[in-house]
Specification:
Number of strands: 10
Mean pLDDT: 90
Helix content: 55-70%
Length: 417
Amino acid sequence: LHGTLAAMFLVGPWAPFASHFEVFESGIHRAEQTTQPQQYFAHFGLFVVLGLIFLAVRYREELRARNGLPGRNIGLMCVAGPWELLSFAAFVAGLMAFTWQFGVTVVAVSILIILLLANLLWLELRSTRPDLGRLLATGCFLAAFGIAAGVDVVTVNNDIVRMNTVFKFSLQAWQFFALGGAYAAWYTGSRAWGFRDWRPIMISSRPVFAATATGAVAVLLVAGLIFPWSGTRSRQDARFGDTSLTLNGFAFFEHGTYREDRGTPDPADDVEFALADDQPIVEWLRRNVEGSPVVAEAVGGLYHWTGRISMLTGLPAVIGWDWHQVQQRWDYQRYIQERRSDTQVFYQTSDVAFTIDYLRKYNVRYVVVGTEEVALGTPEGLTKFTTMDALTQVYSDGRYAIYEVAADRLPPLTVSR
């Protein structure tokens, strides 16, 4: 009964999503590119070092529990004494040197670490009193190293080289690394350091190893903290003006400008505007609109300011960033391009019949006329909104506006679209 109830609570909420989930491109193929060791270390270096320290401490504990006798366990044999450790280090160095020329060093070393972790997991499970924390940490490291190396082995089909495979799976690897690394830092640190009168003191029987490991982790931690600060500011400064530290996610509005390419060969036709011009529209929609009605807004090129209304309000638009839609709904590309084309015409044509068909076809509730609509639309295409009985102007600042659509006042579709 308990199992049935648990299954219902776990599967029930997931079932509607799973039953409607559609995948257009599935499967994997052999990875055509691999990660260089220095790139791998730049991404996961701190966690790799924590994992290796955890391995060293745990294997030493396992050997001490057996009075230094490895028995028939190959993993313990590799680290049972100084000569064994030296031989093992030489093997690892040779493995790296041999695989470097083929670009598979990350995979080769990861497999070796995975084997050591799997052996450690086996030893823990066979002990008379398995430690849950050590089990979970070892399992997390095992999953993390496996996932991080796996992207060098296979690539998901229909990827852009392997970009999506790497960044999506790396997110999962980071989570496992973070869980295992946090436990490893506490577990190994508590065996190296203690406190006396609130002062840290060395309690490890191997002070040189403990001090070296602590220093390495500290250096990598400090180095890892540089990027979130400097990298984020650099990226922000490249896109927006300087703002003070704030929790206001809309602060960029006041300092940013954008130049929209209207698609003509002459740069003089481009339109430059302030991002702040769209802020009142966004704030009005956020304050006054309930539910998830469809919003019509202009469509433009990739990485443009178009799509900002949907992005900043959370409301669905007729067409979002079209490449993401195409990539994720591959078999429906024709309909996506149709939405894009219809939206372009919607803001450019003076044809009221087409406009009515568009509003009905896509169940539009609000029509936005902001910076991008003025830049990419035509005067006659925008003026027609003021003449339609089914549209009510609910916001205006003199140049930009929002129109609410009264569906019951729209005539029926004039053509099959």
